[in-house]
Amino acid sequence: MAEVNKVVLAYSGGLDTSVILKWLQETYNCEVVTFTADLGQGEEVEPARAKAQAMGVKEIYIDDLREEFVRDFVFPMFRANTVYEGEYLLGTSIARPLIAKRLIEIANETGADAISHGATGKGNDQVRFELGAYALKPGVKVIAPWREWDLLSREKLMDYAAKHEIPIERHGKKKSPYSMDANLLHISYEGGVLEDTWAEHEEDMWRWSVSPENAPDQATYIELSYQNGDIVAIDGKEMSPATVLAYLNKVGGDNGIGRLDIVENRFVGMKSRGCYETPGGTIMLKGHRAIESITLDREVAHLKDSLMPKYAELIYNGFWWSPERVMLQQMIDASQAQVNGVVRLKLYKGNVVVVGRKSDDSLFDANIATFEDDAGAYDQADAAGFIKLNALRMRIAANKGRKLL
Amino acid sequence: MAEVNKVVLAYSGGLDTSVILKWLQETYNCEVVTFTADLGQGEEVEPARAKAQAMGVKEIYIDDLREEFVRDFVFPMFRANTVYEGEYLLGTSIARPLIAKRLIEIANETGADAISHGATGKGNDQVRFELGAYALKPGVKVIAPWREWDLLSREKLMDYAAKHEIPIERHGKKKSPYSMDANLLHISYEGGVLEDTWAEHEEDMWRWSVSPENAPDQATYIELSYQNGDIVAIDGKEMSPATVLAYLNKVGGDNGIGRLDIVENRFVGMKSRGCYETPGGTIMLKGHRAIESITLDREVAHLKDSLMPKYAELIYNGFWWSPERVMLQQMIDASQAQVNGVVRLKLYKGNVVVVGRKSDDSLFDANIATFEDDAGAYDQADAAGFIKLNALRMRIAANKGRKLL
Amino acid sequence: MAEVNKVVLAYSGGLDTSVILKWLQETYNCEVVTFTADLGQGEEVEPARAKAQAMGVKEIYIDDLREEFVRDFVFPMFRANTVYEGEYLLGTSIARPLIAKRLIEIANETGADAISHGATGKGNDQVRFELGAYALKPGVKVIAPWREWDLLSREKLMDYAAKHEIPIERHGKKKSPYSMDANLLHISYEGGVLEDTWAEHEEDMWRWSVSPENAPDQATYIELSYQNGDIVAIDGKEMSPATVLAYLNKVGGDNGIGRLDIVENRFVGMKSRGCYETPGGTIMLKGHRAIESITLDREVAHLKDSLMPKYAELIYNGFWWSPERVMLQQMIDASQAQVNGVVRLKLYKGNVVVVGRKSDDSLFDANIATFEDDAGAYDQADAAGFIKLNALRMRIAANKGRKLL
Amino acid sequence: MAEVNKVVLAYSGGLDTSVILKWLQETYNCEVVTFTADLGQGEEVEPARAKAQAMGVKEIYIDDLREEFVRDFVFPMFRANTVYEGEYLLGTSIARPLIAKRLIEIANETGADAISHGATGKGNDQVRFELGAYALKPGVKVIAPWREWDLLSREKLMDYAAKHEIPIERHGKKKSPYSMDANLLHISYEGGVLEDTWAEHEEDMWRWSVSPENAPDQATYIELSYQNGDIVAIDGKEMSPATVLAYLNKVGGDNGIGRLDIVENRFVGMKSRGCYETPGGTIMLKGHRAIESITLDREVAHLKDSLMPKYAELIYNGFWWSPERVMLQQMIDASQAQVNGVVRLKLYKGNVVVVGRKSDDSLFDANIATFEDDAGAYDQADAAGFIKLNALRMRIAANKGRKLL
């Protein structure tokens, strides 16, 4: 077991990380620094302070990271229309690198030589935390209790908590059967009945959105204003990044938008089923594609599309803090210089429908595209040569008797 | 002007291609063979016979190609989860290579040395028809009247029709302001008010689907059975490919599914706006991803995803009958060997929601994925080494003082 | 025929472009501006002035573009280790965008509304010139005489020259049977005996290099110093970009380096055979890969490699002045920030052998790589977990009876 | 420590694997089956039998795998023109999957529950062996002594050998300072002086080839006959795959061909320097590109090129026995249907020069490619439209004031 002097713990204030806090103190006989972040998960972070103090923690960090999260992580990711495996908007994946970064910053500030987190040994999050930590502070020690300890069942955990007088909060509501994670971009559900891929998810699982059935019978229209690929205003009102996302979550959730039920491939090698609510993100993806559709060059758009799966995989697998992600990001960001304008969307019972897009940087040329007479803007005769030469290699091959199959 | 003896015309029986028929006879002083295909566009094809006969055509081909269309074109394309520019399901693109193939087959059967079609010089369809034709019969002559003649306005066309006694049918319904194209996979709309990208599409434009607002308040559940990536049964009932698609169009359209409004990039170089109704295709895309999610290896799935944009571009651009499309297809088809099983979907007011998937070939392993005790199926300690070596290059770099940005 | 007031002609001073000059004056009855560039082709450019004057040209541009050519075109291209179809170093392709750019700059300066060049209608160069011209000045008229006139045989051309008193220079040496093009990066040969792909190229065709057989029996060693991926010094002596390339051409050519004989695929659709001498470029490619091998992150290097074929294709096809090339370039350039250091090469009878590389930015860590005891720098036990999880998806599949073939 | 009943050991007969053999017997108290393969490494394999018997091994496998190695591994890999990181021909990587396969086949035949190998915990080979083993027999136990034992220095190893009376052979020649590995495709060198990336490799390190300096002053010409992308005859004489490679190694080595000195990126995360001799492989790569240059469609060739880095990475990283490698292989193999014909090469002092290529399946069309009059085979006027439409998106953008930079 590595010798550890001081460890920074990603601390939610909940039971699991409270047990970890105690376990670190006992097992490593070291000082623990707690770090609790408001990433928009919708729970108070301040209560974590008293809990940490009660366990003797002297250095307590509680940060509101919502603006940084959306501005420096969510928005850059959406510039690429990022979707993992055709469906998943990477809500959990994109929050981890920010937490890793803060853990290391705090380790540097407090002179800690280790970090710790509450992610299990089966999931992607351990990878995302630790790859980030190693990349930013290569000599850091990482303590992942779930990979080390023997408290592998809930009973043992509760026993440990009871034995060490760690308070177990009793919410009015029943303990959820799901493993959940939330931030401003999404809330995720795993485990429970979802471990049967044939079983339908339960309606009462969802927390952030009404069902399409329960959404209003009247559509909601919104206008998103883009600058360099990011939303800077909604319905003409300028908003900060976190405010944009919070607003879209609200209006999206109200309209039954953004629920997803998938089986995904984890980096550690197994398939797992997850359900996700991403109301704002679902709207953002649709809106961004729409504003790009009139402002982006075709080949730039296609190049971006061809690299997107790689970029999504990097984020999913935890390589945000890698030189290849940074390199791809530079290209993606460069492509957004003229992604400016307004998209108009209709939200209705789970549907996000593009109904208009306009931009001073639009490359749509009605004179050329028109079915009416274009007054010579486009010479149709050019098409004959264009086709002939595009076909030439195939004509030569066919002339020489080459068959396609 | 090329000398032409006999030309096979893709003939719909409508005004435009009737004018073309006459114009070909007059301009090239050649025999015309007509070819009319039922691709599921929802209009009678048989009436084309009498019209062609009335204009003196002796060789008239009227084919029901619906099964071939879905089996050999639509289904193979959906095996790749093909989407162009993030949105478009390629409904028009995928029908053109079949028409090209039949035009050439008929040319070979009838000894024709040329083909002709009614696509304009601004669009993608001319490219798709002609690339296919050249690839399959390299010496064929292609006559594209819209690139040659001077009948470029509707008035001139009508005058020509009147002068040559070509009957102009008056439907009860008003002439649509849109340029439309339909087949079993979709119906498309271009032109008219759509040429203003900011203008909302009109509700009465849509032909195949009710609006989500007008869809039933009760959800519809369906089960799709897959074999080698293709749907072979719905709700346990075996169906032919065309029947599958027709059924899904019906149930999808009834539930307000599959409308799309986009600005796309044409191969000939301009942006254009199109609206599409693809009820069945929208369901198929969602279902296919779901069955793949439990049956496909992760890296196979990611490799497919990374090549999909290229594959979609090939189809959009008209390169179906190219060796590179065939080569990609072989890889895609090979990946589908175990894409077998059943997907359960909920259809509700425009939404297609996956609610279950199962397969004898499932790679989902509940024992390993579980949040509960897995009885040693997975050794969490392995993750530490996995992460350490994945991080090694970044740790070395950071140790040497390398910064990420 | 388009109406033209003034045209800028890419003018070499040779027979062909002199005929074009006269033909433009006669055919378009317009003023001609000549532009002659020294790109390092090894021929005097100044004589073009008198010839142009003799034909009444008033605006004559003669530019030494060697530094700009290497600094802004050749060097950026080599940062990507660019090779077309596995072999070709793009010597011709990379010069064309610079000429296109100057043609347009001169057109803007002189108020010309057209440009003209001497490239044939079968080759890639017409595409490269014209795509660049259109991208930089979208309304420009392009006159490509070889696609327009009827002087398609050498006899007719000579007759035209004689008739118009265009002087035909008689070199001491016999007229080459090859179509050649040269600049500081390479000299190319096409046509003649090369049109038979089985015929061996003739030794006396080559102009810039001795054969390996005739190269010195003693090897030459050189050290290339890199900064941000570009060579800034040779054997410790700082040199400008053009001087670097000229020097490497000399030492490479002296050692029989850089000859190539290939069949390539042209953008216009046919295969053609070309022979190329690229002594300096061949050394640069080898050297650049070597300096990258110790300074570049693995995944950055692999990402670059995966995009290189696309980047090479863009340059070959004439899309240097396209947004997608610019976008790729930004990523490539960003990757070169730490590509600094020295490479030592041995040149011997056609061989370029890397014998050493060093860098303050090296990521090579002898302590970790060593076969000797590494004092704990690397924990071999990590590898077990790394392998286990990399294998997990395949173990699960095999456990479920999935076969690979 | 896992309980093991019987283990199959990849046994060379040398000191290291003899120590492992003994160590396995002692440590795991289990039966050991030895497997020794002739992959063309150039050493006798039969002596391994007596050594194994002397240590009490009852089941001894000695296989000549040369034909299988070249036919099923080397040849398929060369169909893709596979090169790792621009330089490395993957000589070691491609042999490992065959050994993994045989280890598992023997485990199945002998009822063994484990395999073992002598690869270290720092290298790629452990990964390649073990990924293959796990993919083919998911429940197999893997014993990698170098990751487990404490015999980490040569002294301890020698002490162990002495203590257990394992004979240490004294060759006449001095022990090489390099870690070497050989098979029919190549011989590799690592360690020793090579751990300094600036130090030149020593001439007396190389075993298989003469230096270019010492190669004959007379060039050697050979003709390679291809069928479906594989060499089936040399100079008109039909040969088996292994015979082809042995022949090319001989003639290549005699002409100083195939030496390489690189720094490469290992899958486990560090950079390492390796020197390689691959005489036959170097010739094969050049020859295969040449035969493809006349027989492969352009876009098929470019698609192959764009996927090659991924394919090379898969093989380098040990994923030969993965579904994604199999999937890529199907595409690659399909592309080779018409890669038939003859390539003529000149070998001279390290150089492999293509001097001719011919094929009944050639797509080279001299009539179209010619610089002479082509009698109308190609209409130069087509190029104007081709260029115009390729430029259209850029012209529109420039017209709207869009700048490239």
From TrEMBL, chains A, B, C, D:
Binding site for L-aspartate: T120, N124, D125
Top-level EC class: ligase
Residues holding ATP: A10, Y11, S12, G13, G14, L15, D16, T17, S18, A37, G118
Domain of life from the UniProt record: Bacteria
E.C. no: 6.3.4.5
Annotated CDD domains: ASS (cd01999)
Subcellular location: Cytoplasm
Predominant localisation class: cytoplasm
PROSITE patterns: ARGININOSUCCIN_SYN_1, ARGININOSUCCIN_SYN_2
Keywords assigned: Amino-acid biosynthesis, Arginine biosynthesis, ATP-binding, Cytoplasm, Ligase, Nucleotide-binding
Binding site for L-citrulline: Y88, S93, N124, R128, S179, S188, E264, Y276
GO MF: argininosuccinate synthase activity; ATP binding
Reactions listed under catalytic activity: L-citrulline + L-aspartate + ATP = 2-(N(omega)-L-arginino)succinate + AMP + diphosphate + H(+)
InterPro entries: Arginosuc_syn_C (IPR048268), Arginosuc_syn_N (IPR048267), Arginosuc_synth (IPR001518), Arginosuc_synth_CS (IPR018223), Arginosuc_synth_type_1_subfam (IPR023434), AS_cat/multimer_dom_body (IPR024074), Rossmann-like_a/b/a_fold (IPR014729)
Arginosuccinate synthase-like N-terminal domain sequence ranges: 6-167
Pathway: Amino-acid biosynthesis; L-arginine biosynthesis; L-arginine from L-ornithine and carbamoyl phosphate: step 2/3
GO cellular component, one term: cytoplasm
Domain Arginosuccinate synthase C-terminal: 178-396
Subunit structure: Homotetramer.
Family under the similarity heading: Belongs to the argininosuccinate synthase family. Type 1 subfamily.
Matches recorded under NCBIfam families: argG (TIGR00032), PRK00509.1 (NF001770)
PANTHER family reported in the protein's UniProt record: ARGININOSUCCINATE SYNTHASE
Protein name, entry field: Argininosuccinate synthase
Gene that encodes the chain: argG
